[in-house]
Amino acid sequence: MSTHAEVTALPAAPPVNRRRVLRPVLVYAGMLLLSLACLRQWGSAEPWARLDLFSGSYVVFNVLFRIRAFFSGRGGMGMKSEATQEALGLTFDPRSALWMRLLGLSQPAVMLDYGHLHLVPVLEKSVLQSAGLGLYLLAELGLVWVDTYLMRQFYGDLENRSLVSEGPYRRVRHPRYTFLLLGKVGFTLIFASLLGWLLTLGWLVLLLRRIPKEEAHLGEIFGEEYDAYVRRSARLLPCLY
Fold first, then answer.
1. Residue 39 sits in a domain of what CATH number?
2. pLDDT value at residue 75
3. Which end of the chain is more exposed for a tag (fewer CB within 10 A), N or C?
C-alpha cells in the first residue's frame, strides 16, 4: 500500500484500547513459547541443543524487532478501528488477510521440523543458515524502513490520504511484501526446513493473488495519480516484476 508524506514522527495516536493492544501481545507470547517448546529436546541431557547459534539468534532478533514494532506503532497500537481494517487489508481482501494470519501461526511447525522431525536433513548447512540469518536481518530492517513511510497514513484522516512514491516506494509499489517474502526465505534457510519452503511458497501465492486486489483498491482511492505511479514502478522487484 502506498502513500506520500515526508518522513517525520508519527502523529499523536488516539487513546489506546488496552484490550486491542494486549491481545496481539498475548498471541505473540504464546507463539514464542510454543516455538521454543518445539525446539526443546524433552528428556535429553542437553534440552536446548537445538537452540543453537542460528535458531537462538533468530529468536533474539525476532523478539527485539517485535518489541520495536510494538512501541513504534507498527503493531497498530492506538489505531482507530476503521484504520486497522484498512491497514490489514480487510476492506478489500478479507480472505487473504485471514490466510496470512493462519500462515503466520504455522511458524511452530517449522521449529518442530528443526527440533525433532528433520524431514530433509541435507538442508541443514551452516553456510545456508548464515545466509538465511543475514536475509532475515535485511528483511526486518527493510520493514522498519517501509513502515516509517507506511504507518503514518493510518493515524490520520483516511479520507485525506495522499499517494506516497518516495523512499522504498520510489521504484516498487509493494516493498513491504518484498521484504516480507525475503524474511520468509531467510527464516526457512535458518531452520533448514522443507515445511518452511512450503509455507514460503504459500506466502508467495497468497501475495501474488492479493496484490491485484490491493492495486484495484488503491486505484479507486487515488485515481489517475495511482495509474501514473503504476506505469513508472514495479510491483515487487525493480526492473523485474
1. 1.20.120.1630
2. 53
3. C
Distance between CA 190 and CA 197 in Å, rounded? Answer: 11
Cell output for 214:
490491493
In a domain, 12, yes or no: no
**Angle CA 227–228–229, to nearest 5:** 90
CA atoms within a 13 Å half-sphere pointing along the CA-CB vector of 237: 5
Of the CA atoms within 13 Å of residue 158, those in its CB half-sphere come to: 13
The number of domains in the chain is: 1
Burial profile 142-171: b = 16 or more Cβ within 10 angstroms, e = fewer: bbebbbbbbbbbbbbebeebebbbebbbee
Kindly state whether residue 151 falls inside one of the protein's structural domains: yes
Q: Which residue has the cell 513459547?
A: 33
Let me know if residue 10 belongs to a domain. no
Strand ranges, E, within the chain: none
The total number of residues written for the chain in this structure: 241
For the record, the C-alpha cell of 159 comes out as: 479520507
First to last CA, the chain: 16
- Domain of 54 in residue numbering reads as 18-231
Report mean pLDDT in 10-residue bins for the chain, 241 residues: 44 54 88 97 96 98 93 59 76 89 93 97 97 98 92 72 88 96 98 97 96 94 94 92 84
